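Limitations

Structures in this collection are predictions, not experimental determinations, and the ligand pose is part of the prediction. Treat each record accordingly. The example that follows, with DAU as the small molecule, is included so readers can see exactly what is and is not provided: the inputs are given verbatim, and the output is the predicted complex.
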Amino acid sequence: MTLFVTGGAGFIGGNFIHYYLKQHPDDRVVCLDKLTYAGNISTLSPVMDNPKFRFVKIDICDRKAIYKLFEEETPAIVVNFAAESHVDRSIENPEIFLQTNILGTQVLMDACRKYGIQRYHQVSTDEVYGDLPLDRPDLFFTEETPIQTSSPYSSSKAGADLLVMAYHRTYDLPVTISRCSNNYGPYHFPEKLIPLMIVNSLADKPLPLYGEGLNVRDWLYVADHCRAIDLIIHEGRVGEIYNVGGHNEMKNIDIVKLICKELGKPESLITHVTDRKGHDMRYAIDPTKIHNELGWLPETKFEDGIKKTIKWYLEHREWWETIISGEYQNYYEKMYGNRERVR
Ligand code: NAD
Ligand code: DAU
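Predicted complex:
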């Protein structure tokens, strides 16, 4: 059986490929990735020599190239991780988000219709539900929560989700969607909160916390997300959406303080800076459906996961030092250079 994994040179897709090849040694995995700034071929170096693995540099929006690859490989399952994934970048430049996240999804699904598929799985996000107020800890996102997006990123992901469900209803495409909360773990690109704070702490650089740092995210160790997707593509019901999250809500400021503590760095590095525009306050997933239907529960507790993650960054300096020595410097200057210190 051949599985297509798009965006496999990125954070979650890369972790998924490592996970999947271990769990299903008889299946073949083909990674389709454009290698944008967020794609790192070095993430896949441990599997490059595996005869069951193939890497193809390709843009999911390139219809001709995608059709050719489908013809050549006849995949049984497609798991679509490929996306522009960073909210702050979407605020700066929404267009590429609409292109990749919506039109790229359409091209992949058209290929699935044309060549046939057992399952098309769309990796989506809890951000499609918008946010929850801080003073209502009793509220959670369920699969029935209405879509109500805040950023160009989340809007593009919601647009893609709607299109996926439309392809199911209109063309009977066998689809599933997962909507997961914030992931953390190895190979996380250092533009996102946790790896950015680890990398800056190690260099004794300021830790730029947006606003008061009171926003809440529901953190899940990336391997738990990979296991959820593996279950959904094999045992999940066609046409269904599954929320994925582990009831692990934390304030940004508490995460950053914890990272300082683990690395023996002073909290005085924390610098409150101008808030993100349209900043979502709180995300919180209700994972009852995936638990009841597929028996999924998170296995890694945050206390252990964050220690493992920090250890990974300490032991894989080359991976992230290569990233931050390049174009990343310009990105950092652009995003944080003019961000005012607010206290
Ligand atoms: P990432 O930014 O680390 O990786 C994205 C990957 O997609 C990169 O390898 C990039 O090169 C590739 N890519 C981008 N545009 C492409 C294109 N046009 N064609 C082919 N490849 C392309 O993202 P991530 O954090 O690993 O997220 C993966 C998926 O999971 C995304 O769809 C995201 O919306 C979703 N998600 C992420 C999180 C999270 O916490 N990171 C949580 C829930 C859902
Ligand atoms: O909830 C799932 C989503 O989680 C995914 O769909 C997105 O692809 C992924 O990037 C992530 O989005 P967030 O915006 O929640 O993640 P980010 O790491 O960018 O920010 C987490 C929180 O930390 C958020 O409240 C903003 C804040 N933050 C972030 C950065 C980069 C800071 O305070 N300072 C920073 O420098």
